[in-house]
């Protein structure tokens, strides 16, 4: 049941945001932060009704004063049970969703985060994902990409019709008020040595095992990795830890709360993110908020987001990675004020407020046609 609060003449923008059911996921965070920022676009909301596909009561309680909701039902993934309301605009906020409007006549906006599935899937599953994205692209009135890299990769593998395209960067999830309010929080686990911090889905593409291997060549430092542990790749990490006898130096935290995440960003000696495939890489910006030295793989979108002051691994040989880390830390310490300022300034350039305003302009451009 869709709740509405505008007049019948209001234009309705439906955001397919069912991933709000899991705010620990990357898509869940993207959906929530974009919706929250859109809820502050008061001028736009005077004549437009934004509707979220959502059954998360936490989100509803926070945003219901400005935004409407459609109760998400999993059955709407199937063509026979698709949502039939005639919205003014349908925004598919990620390229993976199976939930589509019943009507082919509704103007359609697609946000593409990545096309990593081309390397991660195979067989019938890959064929399905390719055809799914092709269909979305062909019905789109406009496409938004979360990075230039995501745009380049999509163009490299798919035919894009002659439609408006935009790059709208994600915002940085942290702001000063949040950081200050949680300043005195202390998580259950606090290492007694300097530590490197990393966070993300515990899956192979995140490449966390290379950090464990690198640690053998570093002294007096602990590695902390946060992320959901119920994955096959978790067992590979545990085996690496046992094999190298690093049980006292590597900690797998599992999922952590926002305030714990802030503590680890704020108190780590460095943030490390050796991921092989990223459409954007939000943890990079989060770590920059605290002026921490940033160590990244030089793959996919990470150089685009990390910028010129981050340090990059161009291979994953453990000893080479340790050399890059030590050289980067030395350079950071010799120019700490310059690096910290550069990181903080860069983190502030990516805001959800800007992203929301950019999306509003895209909505307006489509609705004016």
Describe the protein in words.
The chain has 369 residues and is an alpha/beta fold. It contains 15 helices and 13 strands. The chain has helices at residues 26-38, 42-45, 57-63, 117-120, 123-139, 148-157, 176-181, 209-215, 232-243, 258-267, 282-288, 302-306, 318-334, 336-349, 352-367, and strands at 11-16, 48-53, 68-70, 89-92, 108-112, 142-145, 165-167, 195-199, 222-226, 250-254, 270-273, 294-297, 311-313. The protein has a 7-stranded parallel sheet with strand order 3-2-1-4-5-6-7, with helices on both faces. Strand 9, helix 9 (232-243) and strand 10 form a beta-alpha-beta unit. Helix 1 packs across helix 15, helix 8 (209-215) crosses helix 13 (318-334) and helix 11 (282-288) crosses helix 14. The protein is globular and about 65 Å long.
Distance between the termini: 29 Å
Order of helices and strands: EHHEHEEEHHEHEHEHEHEHEHEHEHHH
Low-confidence stretches: none
- Rg over CA atoms: 21 Å
Fraction in beta strands: 15-25%
What is the number of beta strands? 13
- The outline comes out as globular
- The secondary structure category is alpha/beta
How many helical elements? 15
Q: What is the mean predicted local confidence, pLDDT?
A: 93
The proportion of residues forming helix, as a percent range, comes to 40-55%
Give the biggest sheet. 7 strands, parallel
Spatial arrangement of strands, main beta sheet:
3-2-1-4-5-6-7
Q: What does the secondary structure layout of this molecule look like, with pairings?
A:
Blueprint: E1 11-16, H1 26-38, H2 42-45, E2 48-53, H3 57-63, E3 68-70, E4 89-92, E5 108-112, H4 117-120, H5 123-139, E6 142-145, H6 148-157, E7 165-167, H7 176-181, E8 195-199, H8 209-215, E9 222-226, H9 232-243, E10 250-254, H10 258-267, E11 270-273, H11 282-288, E12 294-297, H12 302-306, E13 311-313, H13 318-334, H14 336-349, H15 352-367
Helix pairs in contact: 1-15, 8-13, 11-14, 13-14
